[in-house]
Write a structure and sequence with these properties.
Layout (H helix, E strand, L loop, with lengths): L5 E5 L4 H11 L8 E5 L6 H15 L5 E4 L4 H5 L12 E3 L5 E3 L4 H18 L13 E4 L18 E4 L1 H5 L3 H10 L18 H10 L1 H13 L5 H5 L7 E3 L50
Parallel strand pairs: 1-2, 1-6, 2-3, 6-7
Antiparallel strand pairs: 4-5, 4-8
C-alpha cells in the first residue's frame, strides 16, 4: 500500500495532542493537513480558551484546526426526544448495589464525528464505500507512559500514528515542552460533567469556573433517575445516577484532593480516554442488564 496522502491530527486540546500540534507548527515533526477537534459542546471554559490559542498558533503554520460535532452532550442527555449516549455515571441500585453505566459518549461525540470528517475529506462520505488503498494518517497524542492505549485504527481508511512514541516522550516531556513555549497552563481535556474527574479537578472546577461547577451540579441532579427519554417513556432507572463516585449529590460531596495528585492525569481524548471499560451497570432500567 502506498503512503497515505492525507495527514491529520486528532486534537483533544489536552497536554499530549497540544504538544503534537506545537511540534508540527514549529517544524519539528511533519506538518498536518488539518487538526480535528471533536467538540462535545460541554468542555470547560479553559479548554475552549486554550483551543482558540491553538487555532491562532496553528494558523501561523498553515495548519487549519477544524471543529466537528455530533451534538451537545449535556443538552442531548436531558432531551426526552434524543437518544441517550450512555456516560460512565456512577450507579446506586435499589438495594445499595454499586456500579457504573457503560460508556458510549466518547464514541458518539468524539470518534464518530472525526470519522465523518475524515471520510468527507477523502471524498467518500457515508454511505459511500472508501476504496481500498485510500487511507489517511491520523496522529494521536499518546505518550510513552500510555503506550498500552496505542492501537491500530478500526477502519481501513485510517492509519493511526503516534508521534510522541516515535520521539520516546512521556507526559512530563510534553509538559516541559509546552512550558518552554509559553503553554504551561494547558488544561486537561474532559467534559465539565465527566464522572472520571478526581477530587482535585472538582475542586479546581468549583474554584476557577463557578459557572461550570453550577452546570455540573445541575446536571447531576437532573440525571439522577436516568435518561430523560427513558423517564418520559415511563422507564425510570431502577436506582440512581451520580457524577461523583461517592454516589451522593455533587454539591454535598466533601471533596478530598490527594496531596500526591500534583498534576492531572491524561485527558479524555477521542482514542485516549484513560479509563477502562465500565463493569456491569448495577442500576439499570427494568428488564435490562447493561454491559459496555
Amino acid at each position: 500500500m502506498s503512503a497515505p496522502a492525507y495527514r491529520y491530527l486528532s486534537l483533544g486540546a489536552g497536554v499530549q495532542s497540544s504538544t503534537v500540534l506545537l511540534l508540527a507548527a514549529r517544524g519539528e515533526i511533519r506538518t498536518f493537513d488539518a487538526a480535528i477537534f471533536a467538540d462535545t459542546g460541554w468542555e470547560p471554559a479553559p479548554v475552549y480558551a486554550h483551543l482558540q490559542r491553538l487555532e491562532q498558533l496553528a494558523a501561523t503554520a498553515g495548519i487549519p484546526v477544524i471543529r466537528v460535532a455530533a451534538g451537545h452532550i449535556r443538552r442531548d442527555a436531558l432531551d426526552p426526544e434524543h437518544r441517550f449516549a450512555s456516560m460512565p455515571l456512577f450507579t446506586l441500585g435499589p438495594h445499595g448495589e454499586r456500579g457504573m453505566a457503560r460508556r458510549q459518549c466518547t464514541g458518539e461525540y468524539k470518534i464518530k464525528p472525526i470519522k465523518v470528517e475524515v471520510r468527507r475529506r477523502l471524498g467518500y462520505p457515508h454511505p459511500a464505500r472508501v476504496p481500498a488503498g485510500v487511507v489517511a494518517q491520523m496522529a494521536i497524542g499518546i505518550s510513552l507512559d500510555e503506550i498500552g492505549r496505542a492501537r491500530d485504527a478500526d477502519v481501513a481508511y485510517m492509519r493511526n500514528t503516534f508521534p510522541l512514541l516515535d520521539l520516546g516522550w512521556r507526559r512530563e516531556d510534553c509538559l516541559a515542552y509546552l512550558t518552554q513555549h509559553g503553554l504551561a497552563d494547558t488544561p486537561r481535556s474532559a467534559c465539565v460533567g465527566c464522572p472520571f474527574r478526581t477530587d482535585a479537578e472538582w475542586v479546581r472546577l468549583r474554584r476557577d469556573d463557578p459557572t461550570g461547577w453550577a452546570d455540573a451540579v445541575a446536571f447531576d441532579a437532573a440525571i439522577r433517575h436516568g435518561p430523560a427519554r427513558a423517564n418520559a417513556a415511563g422507564q425510570p432507572l431502577r436506582g440512581q445516577f451520580f457524577l461523583h463516585r461517592q454516589r451522593i449529590p455533587l454539591d454535598q460531596v466533601i471533596l478530598r484532593p490527594r496531596a500526591e495528585a500534583a498534576t492531572d492525569g491524561p485527558g479524555c481524548g477521542p482514542w485516549t480516554c484513560p479509563h477502562p471499560d465500565a463493569p456491569i451497570e448495577a442500576a439499570t432500567t427494568p428488564g435490562r442488564e447493561v454491559r459496555h
